[in-house]
Write a structure and sequence with these properties.
Elements: E1 3-8, E2 18-23, H1 32-41, H2 43-50, E3 61-64, E4 72-77, H3 88-105, E5 110-113, H4 125-137, E6 146-151, H5 154-166
Parallel strand pairs: 1-6, 2-4, 2-5, 5-6
Antiparallel strand pairs: 3-4
Helix pairs in contact: 3-4, 4-5
The structure holds adenosine-5'-diphosphate.
């Protein structure tokens, strides 16, 4: 049975097996959580990401965590939200599914997700949260025992708590 926890905090501080970065398609760092992760992990993370030559929206890549307390970073570019009718829900779901897949393949037991696409990419927060929780809950886990949704602000924490309650089995 997968344990799901919601916390408010800075994902760069978490000592888990993998943290999931809301990256962009270049995988070369950016603003928001991506910038924070690259700053905390150090220069080596950028070098490790460079070899991928970018990543399509909804796909995911894994690197070591370098100076981070987390063992790995899973990088996944979320969709830029237009109106929801341009494949955004499917792409966002793929971010979570493909990240879970990499976590499984790398024997991760604890995985922390940032709220992909809900910052500058503009995905409506409640809808994005529903997709995140649904995708993770329905993933056929074998190795992953615990998923932490790491919310940066109080408003996001509240949304996750509400959606979790609403979706309770
Ligand atoms: P995107 O481009 O995918 O929208 P952002 O980094 O702009 O990515 O935002 C994604 C989410 O990450 C937002 O909800 C934002 O508040 C959150 N965030 C920003 N910094 C951090 C951090 N250090 N730890 C956890 N979450 C963060």
């Amino acid at each position: 049975m997968l344990e799901i926890e919601v916390i408010q905090g800075d994902i760069t501080k978490l000592k888990v097996d993998a943290i999931v970065n809301a990256a962009n398609r270049s995988l070369l760092g950016g603003g928001g959580v991506d910038g924070a992760i690259h700053r905390a992990a150090g220069r080596e993370l950028l070098e490790a990401c460079r070899v991928f030559g970018g990543c399509e929206t909804g796909e995911a890549r894994i690197t070591p965590g370098f100076k981070l307390p987390a063992k790995y970073v899973i990088h996944t570019p979320g969709p830029i939200f237009r109106d929801g009718f341009h494949g955004e829900p499917e792409q966002l779901k793929n971010c979570y599914v493909n990240s879970m897949k990499l976590a499984e393949e790398n024997n991760c037991e604890t995985v922390a997700f940032s709220a992909i696409s809900t910052g500058v990419y503009g995905y409506p927060k409640k809808e994005a949260t529903e997709i995140a929780i649904w995708a993770v809950r329905n993933y056929p886990v074998q190795k992953v025992k615990k998923v932490i949704f790491c919310c940066f602000g109080e408003d996001m924490l509240k949304i996750y708590q509400d959606v979790l309650k609403m979706m309770a089995p």
